[in-house]
Structures are given as structure tokens and as C-alpha cells.
Amino acid sequence: MVEAVQGAGVVVTGAGGGIGAALARRFAAEGARVVVNDLDAERAKAVAEEIGGIAVPGDASAIVGEASEALGGTVDVYCANAGVAFEGGETGEAFDERPWALSWDVNVMAHVRAAHELLPGWLERGSGRFVSTVSAAGLLTMIGAAPYSVTKHGAYAFAEWLSLTYRHRGLKVHAICPQGVRTDMLAATGSAGDLVLQPTAIAPAEVADALFKGIEEDRFLILPHPEVAGYYQARAAHPDRWLTNMNHLQQKWEASR
């Protein structure tokens, strides 16, 4: 058992399935009191009933107050897990403003809004934990998914900013950056996901395992696929070589369509 989460009040957004449900199950198994949030009320209720948690359905950007009340007034851990992804990549699809707007709102601004509500209480008592489900796309990129890649970069940058700004005041921040995970969102990536992500896709429970190992080791960056560290280093050290290699992958994808 991880002492840091025993008895903690935990909120997991987008927890009706996939990574969110796996996180909710793991926190509950570790002795936390868990609020399960999802836009789909029935899915949220099903997971909450399974783990002995509390269902608080609705928009992830607007449930902090209700979730806090359900936990007796205190949120100790907030998992900003809800996210959206769209299949696309052709010129028209990549520049359609509707998926851009929704991606910014869910993948970035929901994190910002939650932190804005939670920080005053966390800073006053000198403790709090913010878990951001980002993606390896937030460290690297993803072919055929401009809104997802760019907004996940934003989510990662916001998590970094939270950590560097408030770690001396007791805030713990973790950024989870997996590659492919066998969820509905992976299916939404279409043929690009089939090419890049499916071959090494892992189960959602493995993401939860990686997070809890990171909590125990007090690490900011959580890599359920350890090889991502090498890709990230290569991208920073040799950006043109990395971009050329990614362009080769783009061409392979285009040829397969």
C-alpha cells in the first residue's frame, strides 16, 4: 500500500473507462476515497459502484466543487485524466477549428480550471497532488493528430509550470505520458494509431501501476513506456534527424491509406 494515498480524497476525471477507470480502481484498492467523474453518467456510476466510490458525472471543468463536497470538503489528489482525440491528418481535417476548440478546452483548459479552484486550499495547508494524464504525444508528437499533439504539449507544459512554481509549497505534480494504451481513445486515432501505437499498446492497469511507482519515488515524469525517454532525448539532441525520421513515418502512413 502507498501511504501517501491511504484515506486520501481523490478525484479522477474521465473515469468511466480506460485509463481513468484504471486509476480510480487502483486508488480505491490503495485505500483512497474516490470520486469518479465522466460525461457519461451511467459509466461513472458503474465504476463508482464497482469500487465503492462516489459518482459525480458532468463536465470535468466544472465538478471540483461538487466533488470536494462529496469528499467531505477536501480534495487531496486530483487526476486530470479526461481527454479527447480526433482522427485526421489531411489539410482540411488538420485545420478544422471545431476539434481544435474542443481539444484546447478538454485537454488543457480543464486542467487550468481545476488547478485554479484547488490551489488556494492546497497552498493554505501545504499539500496537494495534481496528476495530469498527458501522452507521449505531449513530449514528442503524433502523426495525423495536430489538435491532440499540440494540446497535449500544452497539458505537459502546464503540469511543468505547476510543479516548478509550487513544489516548495507542498504541491506534488505527476505527468503521465504513455504511448498506446488499449482504450476507446486509441481506437479513435484510426490508421495512424494502428501504425504507430497499436504494436506496443499496453493495458490501462499498467498505466496505473506506473503512476503508483512514480508516486512512491516522488517523480514528476511518469513513462509507462520507458523507451519514450530515449525518443525524448533524441528529439532534443538532434531535432532535424528526429523530424526526418518522423517524416518517414508520415510517408509510410500516407502510402498505407
UniProtKB/TrEMBL annotation:
Pfam families: adh_short. Signal peptide: none annotated. The keyword Oxidoreductase applies. The keyword RNA-binding does not apply. Keywords: Oxidoreductase. Belongs to the short-chain dehydrogenases/reductases (SDR) family. This is SDR family oxidoreductase.
